[in-house]
Design a protein that fits this description.
- The chain has about 550 residues and is an alpha/beta fold.
- The protein is built from 19 helices and 25 strands.
- Helix 7 (about 130-150) crosses helix 8, helix 7 (about 130-150) packs antiparallel against helix 10 (about 245-250) and helix 14 (about 350-370) packs parallel to helix 15.
- It starts with 5 loop residues before the first helix and ends with a strand.
């Protein structure tokens, strides 16, 4: 048998009708809005009707610092949930929707891999149920109303040089980062500097993912700050009377999407903020549905435990009153050798010395989850055929020293069957003592919160604010927005703000160059290093390999 790509495996799967998946999940058809045979939106009224039902156990899947060698968080999340089902547990998975940016950029699809995938894989990776289009439309409606207000006399006194709201498109397009618009004369708008963010970085995405329902959504949209007046007062979407129309555009997008794994396990896929520039978690509503319907809900936070898991805990859990029962930290021997200085082409060779050098990265994440976040955890080694027994034994021995077990995850090759060992350890951990805690007190000053994240999670010497960030810090504090959680925008490739510092670096400070209030989402974004909210395409984009034949069958999508 030749090697099969992820898309070939997904296309061979005998999918069940979404009505059958809903029935298996205990969702009455009256809550379903079908999008064809294999996708459906689930009405949020289901949450109201299940309000008295106790929650299941929440399991967070996170990872070591990512490398070009890959880690496999989504694959592990899917395989773990299938594995829990194989143990007879009522388990659900709640994941983010992929952005078109990475799909056509570097990464390719993001619906799991091998025999641990969610399907229909092509739909999920492309337009799915149109949620991202609705979020982009709502974002751009607000931008249009803002510029129109200025054009029509500017009754609010908005300073065009202090506009913070950007337009959005769900594509990696560096050309749109910094633009000048409104050119062409008096009737063509007010000329000003502008720019685009990728849709997943829009505050509308964060608002949708953190809202508890349509009323909360509308209130959050209204609180979003679009810029400042000449006098320095914030101007909101509510001031522009935009939140009602924006909520109308989002009335379907706010409903979680139901699909299935290759093994027919119910899966919620909803929302998709990146964790390097946003808060990196799927929607609160989808997670709540999984918790109400199942005894175990598996969810994933983007990138490593210093980004995704920290934001999951300090932003999502804090706002939604959630508490994880266990954390899975995904690692691969190959990625750890990369952290130990091995070049990508040489990762298939046994190298215990490099593995030992790279292991501190994993151990620092383990220590953070166990001692800073206070949640029991297991290390899931995503198995590769090139891993040797000596390498696997070394990882296990080092984790044991920290009192953490290692489970070999073979879900890519074997699906749920390959996730049973991991599932058994997760079930055991869910019954262990839990000292869940946040990284900082939300009522501390902005600088104290930044310092806590940098010292306690990144193991830095502290935080440094440049002159611009200091000015913004004073403005934010004076306006009374300082008692919000922090959303760090930082490279995913290092604990530090320098992507080149691999492993577990020491002796560095994190420099914050920009602070931005997201009053609707309810957090302050701190931009560090050279992180951008609009990525660019690589020299050879994934888009070059993607095609569709005369029967509408897509190829090259992972």
């Amino acid at each position: 048998m030749g090697f099969k790509s992820d898309i070939e495996i997904a296309q061979e799967c005998e999918k069940q009708k979404i009505t059958a998946i809903a029935a298996k999940a205990g969702i009455d058809e009256k809550y379903l809005e079908q999008y064809g045979n294999y996708k459906a939106k689930v009405d949020y009224k289901l949450l109201t009707d299940l309000a008295s039902k106790p929650d299941g156990k929440l399991i967070l899947v996170t990872a070591i610092t990512p490398t070009p060698a890959g880690e496999g968080k989504t694959t592990t999340s899917v395989g773990l949930t299938d594995g829990l089902r194989k143990l007879g547990k009522n388990a659900f998975v709640a994941l983010r929707e992929p952005s078109l940016g990475p799909v056509f950029g570097v990464k390719g699809g993001a619906a799991g891999g091998g025999y641990a995938q969610v399907v229909p894989m092509e739909d999920i990776n492309l337009h799915f149920t149109g949620d991202f289009h609705a979020i982009g439309a709502a974002n751009n409606l607000l931008a249009a109303m803002l510029d129109n207000h200025i054009q029509q006399g500017n009754a609010l006194g908005i300073d065009p040089k202090q506009i913070t709201w950007k337009r959005a498109v769900d594509m990696n397009d560096r050309q749109l980062r910094h633009i000048v618009d409104g050119l062409g004369g008096r009737m063509q708008g007010v000329p000003r500097e502008d720019g685009f963010e990728i849709t997943v970085a829009s505050e509308v995405m964060a608002v949708l993912c953190l809202s508890s329902g349509i009323t909360d959504l509308k209130e959050r949209l209204g609180r979003m700050i679009v810029g400042y007046t000449y006098a320095g007062a914030p101007v909101t979407a509510h001031d522009l009377k935009a939140e009602g129309a924006m909520a109308a555009l989002l009335k379907d997008a706010i409903k979680p999407n139901l699909v299935q794994t290759l093994e027919g396990t119910p899966a919620f896929i909803h929302g998709g903020p990146f964790a390097n520039i946003a808060h990196g978690c799927n929607s609160v509503m989808a997670t709540r549905m999984a918790l109400k319907l199942g005894d175990y809900a598996v969810t994933e936070a983007g990138f490593a435990a210093d980004l995704g898991a920290e934001k999951f805990i300090d932003i999502k859990c804090r706002m939604a009153g959630l508490q994880p029962s266990a954390v899975v930290i995904v690692a691969t021997v190959r990625a750890l050798k990369y952290h130990g200085g091995v070049a990508k082409p040489d990762l298939n060779n046994e190298n215990l010395e490099a593995l030992e050098k790279g292991l501190p990265n994993l151990l620092q994440h383990v220590e953070n989850v166990k001692n800073v976040y206070g949640v029991p955890c297991v290390v899931a080694i995503n198995a590769f055929p090139t891993d040797t027994k000596a390498e696997l034994d070394m990882v296990e021995a080092k984790c044991k020293e920290l009192g953490v077990n290692v489970a070999l995850s073979e879900v890519w090759a074997k699906g749920g069957e390959g996730g049973k060992a991991l599932a058994e350890e997760v079930v055991r951990l869910c019954e262990q003592p839990n000292n869940f805690s946040f990284v900082y007190d939300v009522n501390a000053s902005i600088e104290e919160k930044l310092d806590a994240i940098c010292k306690r999670v990144y193991h830095a010497d502290g935080v440094a604010l440049d002159a611009n960030a200091k000015k913004q810090l004073k403005q934010i504090t004076d306006l009374g927005f300082d008692k919000m959680p922090i959303c760090m925008a930082k490279t995913q490739y290092s604990f530090s703000d320098n992507a080149a510092l691999l492993g577990a670096p020491k002796g560095f400070k994190v420099t914050v160059r920009n602070l931005k209030v997201c009053a609707g989402a309810g957090f302050i974004v701190a931009l560090t290093g050279d992180i951008m909210t609009m990525p660019g395409l690589p020299k050879v984009p994934s888009a070059e390999k993607i095609d569709v034949d005369e029967n509408g069958v897509i190829s090259g999508l992972f």
